[in-house]
Amino acid sequence: MNDRNNRGGNGRGNSGGGRPTDRRDGPSGRNFRNDSDARRGTGSANRPPEPPLPDDVVPQDLDTEVRRDLLSLDRTNADTVSRHLIMTFRLLDEDPVLALEHARAARRRAGRIAMVREAAGIAAYTAHEWAEALSELRAARRMSGGNALLPMIADCERGLGRPERAIDVARSEEGRALTDEDAAEMRIVESGARLDLGEFDKAIVTLQTKDLDPARVGTDAARYFYAYAAALLAAGRREDAITWFMNAASADDDDVTDAEDRLMELAAPESAADESDAESALLAPVHAEAPKAVSEVSAPPALKEVPEQVVPQLVPAAPAEPGARLRDGYDVLLLDLDGTVYAGKSEIPGAKDALDAGEQRNYYVTNNASRSPVDVAEHLQELGFRAEPDEVVTSAQSAARLLAEQLPMGSRVLVVGTDALVHEVRSAGLGVTRSADDRPAAVVQGHSPDTGWAILSEAVLAIRAGALWVACNVDATLPTDRGLQMGNGSMVAAVANATGAQPQVAGKPASPLMVDAVNRSGSKTPLVVGDRLDTDIEGANAIEADSLLVLTGVSTAADALNAPEAQRPTFIAADLQGLNAAADDVIVGPRPGWHVSVLDHTLTVVAQDGADPAAVLYAVLHEAWSRETSTKWIVEAAEEVAQSALMSAGLLA
Fold it and tell me: Which string of b and e fits 259-276 if b means at least 16 CB within 10 Å?
């Protein structure tokens, strides 16, 4: 294991945590740029042999800003120092001992230049030459006047077996004044020093800041999470430590930590003594005996009380003026995607033109959790629609919110779904796993074309072990350009059958997704538009919003005829052009020229003089919905005009 990762020093090569502020004048106030003695360097008479410099290493390869610091040297000496510095930085990771030899050579030639002393300090630090590193870093700090090297200085004190001094540096006025990455580095060092002293609780608290956000990724995040996991493990909080080692592994894009190895070790069936030894090796500073960790399995995180869903108070649309378009009564359109705006990779014919004809802001509300808002917005843009990622609201986002409201931060969640769902879970401050062996506190299930028996079985194992279960949606089918394919709901049903459990549902028709869409848009009078009665329309009714059913996707006119009350739309149209029709023309209600009579379960339709064939659907639905019955209706035509109109409306086979 790379000790740099354990100890908390930054180990960032030539960056040194950010170059200190340049200061050309040394402590004596001499200006080395104009000092002839300084320009001569240190001389070569008694200089020890230097490591060879490859021919392909040229001074011009050194960063321009760094080379400017060497202008006080004569040209030949400056070029040689530049080449040694290049080799120092090049070899830091692969051969730190040789890197230090090059740094020492540069120091002997240009020991009065702060940047050279800083490079020598970093090289000694990387080679674990703590006393030399401490001396060089202190000198560089005195010469430059900056505080960015303080975390490494404090960590050198740890390496020398002086954790109390490391804490003094961290708690000094200068240490407390550090910001951003430098402050985070110092907290890592201070936490490690407190572990050296056996102050486990203080080590944990030291790292509990805003930086402890599982949604973060990258080297800095990975190292911070790793340090926190180490502190938790030392305190005997093994399960919590595993969670944060998992977060570290997830954030570690460049493999700077050995978090994955630690997870494998902790998952192995080792004895308590072996586990304690492993933890000691993890935490031990150089030349110091590590405190013994308590080997103890903590209980899974307790669920929070489920918060009551707060449904926004909506304002009913004002009565439409004669001839007003449907859309004119609403401030925002909450649009479904699959089957409403597009089918797979193709636009629903006329959808773009229909949406472009109004001034309302469009929000795209989708049960499909397989793609991120960025991906959805890009797909819409490719099809010609105006859309931004913040105008896309997904069931994955709502599912992650439901989880975060019920689980402690950092809890592990087994994800059945795509990387888009993984991202939303992490963004909610939760850890991610794909295995029930990690004892997840919850399972979240969203659509993925790659979902198979193996991951569904992991979900079953976790749920049967007591994990909370949240489904992004329960759509049985998914509209595509090839037709209806298996949806997430069908796979949720398989898990339900194997567990006997039922999930909390984030997506439509449940209210969480619709509430999130209303809150995101800031709408007071939204119109929900979709193609499914059992999701889009029922979801609209759940928050008491008006809705428009378009017959371009899953649900048909015949489905609407027999829809239960919870799934009945306010308006119905053939496609999105219905938004631009007069509101009176697309609302369900009686129509002049059409007479519908009822006998038992049969609706008999008669066309009278002047009957508009396009209006028959609304007249039939009005008559069926006005009856207090759950019967399945049969529709018949009393004459040829009615028969033709009913067939066109999809109410006759």
Answer: beebbebbeeeeeeeebb
pLDDT over 80 at 82, yes or no: yes
Q: Which of 85-99, 269-283, 528-542, 557-571 has the lowest average pLDDT? A: 269-283
Exactly one of 155, 211, 338, 516 is catalytic; which is it? 338
Which own/partner pairs from 432-440 qualify as long-range (CB within 8 Å, at least 24 positions apart)?
432/246, 432/250, 433/246, 434/458, 436/461, 436/462, 436/465, 437/267, 438/242, 438/246, 438/267, 438/412, 438/414, 439/239, 439/300, 439/412, 439/465, 440/411, 440/412, 440/413, 440/414, 440/467
338 tagged catalytic: yes
Residues 6+ apart with CB under 8 A from 395: 366, 367, 368, 369, 446, 472, 473, 506, 507, 508, 513
- Paired strand residues for 478: 485
* Identity of the residue numbered 18: G
Cβ(402)–Cβ(374) below 8 Å: no
CB distance 582 to 554 below 8 Å: no
pLDDT at 303: 53
Q: 336, 475, 531, 546: which one is catalytic?
A: 336
Banded pLDDT at 255 (limits 50, 70, 90): confident
Q: Is 346 helix (H, G, I), strand (E, B) or coil?
A: strand
At residue 127 the predicted structure's pLDDT band, cuts being 50, 70 and 90, is very high
Q: What CA–CA distance (Å, rounded) separates 16 from 26?
A: 20
Using a 10 angstrom Cβ sphere, with 0-12 exposed, 13-18 middle and 19 or more buried, the burial of residue 113 is buried
Angle, helices 163-171 vs 180-196, to 10°: value is 150
* Closest of 537, 540, 539, 562 to residue 550, by C-alpha: 537
- Tell me the residue ranges of DSSP E strands in 313-400: 332-335, 342-343, 346-347, 361-366, 392-394
10 pLDDT exceeds 90?
A: no
Rounded to an integer, the average pLDDT of 616-622 is 95
Say how far apart CA 527 and CA 580 lie, in whole Å. Answer: 13
Neighbouring-strand partners of residue 597: 604
DSSP label at residue 316: P
From 632, 576, 642, select the one nearest 604 (Cα to Cα).
642
- For residues 245 and 262, the answer to whether their CB atoms sit within 8 Å is yes
Mean pLDDT of 478-501: 88
Residue 458 has pLDDT above 50, yes or no: yes
pLDDT digit string, tens, across residues 384-421:
999 999 999 999 999 999 999 999 877 889 999 998 99
Is residue 32 pLDDT above 90, yes or no? no
Encoded tokens for 126: 């990387």
Nearest to 457 by CA among 476, 435, 474: 435
| All domains in the chain, ordered by first residue | 19-147 (no CATH), 326-394+514-580 (3.40.50.1000), 395-505 (3.40.50.1000), 588-649 (3.30.300.290)
**Triad 348, 446, 515: Cα angle to 5°:** 75
Sequence length of the chain is 653
> Rounded to an integer, what distance in angstroms lies between the CA atom of residue 382 and that of residue 570?
31
Structure tokens at 459: 């979900």
- And the tokens for 37? 């003695």
CA distance 548 to 643: 26
Percent of the chain at pLDDT exceeding 90: 59
Instruction: Judge whether residue 342 has pLDDT over 80.
Output: yes
In this predicted structure, what is the pLDDT of residue 315?
78
Active site residue 56: no
Neighbours of 640 (CB within 10 A): 9
